[in-house]
């Protein structure tokens, strides 16, 4: 069966510090991978998606970037965090029949 | 522009009091409509996928239906453990990106 791992679960970072969130998938090959952000009072917002190694598409301009160095690894990064980057970050892998989400990372920028 | 709107934003029910949640959507070429359940601090949990108008799916006390412009999630005789935020999403594009509504927060009191 397919599983998705996401870490860390919570993170408190100062403004201007770098960020690296990691997501790995097991039990499937060449998955479509997604990073979403969920802010208070807003729906899940798609940030990046990837259909293969090194292939990244960005949905919205922002202070974040994504990379896919291996088939089942997806990384979300920032060089300098802003207060507005606070939120709940979710990784997902998906197919037309459904998405499977990770457990999420609660990021608080202070 | 593709859009998903959920109503009501919040719903408070007594245990056993049946009701429905609404998800209206505007999307060019619907490829699928998804319902998820999300508990506080956790990633969304997949419930249903609906692909065409007239389709219905059931799981325990939940039943999802789909028309050409909206979907309903019917909750029959809810229990306190059904309390959660229910998210609706539509699948668009060749890459399979999901667009989410803001969700309906359901509270079921004993």
Sketch the topology of chain B as an H/E string, one letter per element: EEEEEEEEEEE
How many individual helices of chain B? 0
Mean pLDDT of chain A: 91
Distance between the termini of chain B: 41 Å
Q: Please bin the fraction of helical residues of chain B.
A: under 10%
| Total helical elements of chain A | 0
Oligomerization status of the protein chains: heterodimer
Count of individual beta strands of chain B? 11
Sheet with the most strands, sense and barrel status of chain A: 7 strands, mixed
Order of helices and strands of chain A: EEEEEEEEEEE
The fraction of residues assigned to DSSP E strands of chain B is: over 45%
Topology:
The complex is a heterodimer of chains A (110) and B (110).
Chain A: E1 3-7, E2 10-13, E3 19-26, E4 32-38, E5 44-52, E6 55-58, E7 65-70, E8 73-78, E9 87-95, E10 98-101, E11 105-109
Parallel strand pairs in A: 2-11
Antiparallel strand pairs in A: 1-3, 3-8, 4-5, 4-9, 5-6, 7-8, 9-10, 9-11
Chain B: E1 3-7, E2 10-14, E3 19-26, E4 33-38, E5 45-50, E6 56-59, E7 62-66, E8 70-75, E9 84-92, E10 97-100, E11 104-109
Parallel strand pairs in B: 2-11
Antiparallel strand pairs in B: 1-3, 3-8, 4-5, 4-9, 6-7, 7-8, 9-10, 9-11
What's the short story on this structure?
The complex is a heterodimer of chains A (110) and B (110). Chain A is mostly beta strands.
Overview of this structure, please?
The complex is a heterodimer of chains A (110) and B (110). Chain A contains no helices and 11 strands. Chain A has strands at residues 3-7, 10-13, 19-26, 32-38, 44-52, 55-58, 65-70, 73-78, 87-95, 98-101, 105-109. The mean pLDDT of chain A is 91. Chain B has 110 residues and is mainly beta. In chain B, the strands form 2 sheets. In chain B, strands 2, 4, 5, 9, 10 and 11 form a 6-stranded mixed beta sheet that branches. Chain B has a 5-stranded antiparallel beta sheet with strand order 1-3-8-7-6, with no helix packed on it. In chain B, strand 6 (56-59) and strand 7 form a beta hairpin. Classes of the chains: A mainly beta (110), B mainly beta (110). At the A-B interface, strand 4, strand 5, strand 9 and strand 10 of A face strand 5, strand 9 and strand 10 of B.
């Amino acid at each position: 069966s397919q599983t998705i791992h996401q870490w860390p679960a919570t993170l408190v970072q100062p403004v201007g510090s770098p960020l690296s969130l990691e997501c790995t998938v097991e039990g499937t090959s060449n998955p479509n991978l997604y990073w979403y952000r969920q802010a208070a009072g807003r729906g899940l917002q798609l940030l990046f998606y990837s259909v293969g190694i090194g292939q990244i598409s960005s949905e919205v301009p922002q202070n974040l970037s994504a990379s896919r160095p291996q088939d089942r690894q997806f990384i979300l990064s920032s060089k300098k965090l802003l207060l507005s980057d606070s939120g709940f970050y979710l990784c997902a892998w998906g197919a037309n029949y459904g998405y499977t989400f990770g457990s999420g990372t609660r990021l608080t920028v202070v | 522009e593709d859009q998903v709107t959920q109503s009501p934003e919040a719903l408070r029910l007594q245990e056993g009091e049946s009701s429905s949640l609404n998800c209206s959507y505007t999307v060019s070429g619907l490829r699928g409509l998804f319902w998820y359940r999300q508990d506080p601090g956790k990633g969304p949990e997949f419930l249903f996928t609906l692909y065409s108008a007239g389709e219905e799916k059931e799981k325990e006390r939940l039943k999802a239906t789909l028309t050409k412009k909206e979907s309903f999630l019917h909750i029959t005789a809810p229990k306190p453990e059904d309390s959660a935020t229910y998210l609706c999403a539509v699948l668009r594009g060749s890459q399979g990106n999901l667009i989410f509504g803001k969700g309906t927060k359901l509270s079921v009191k004993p």
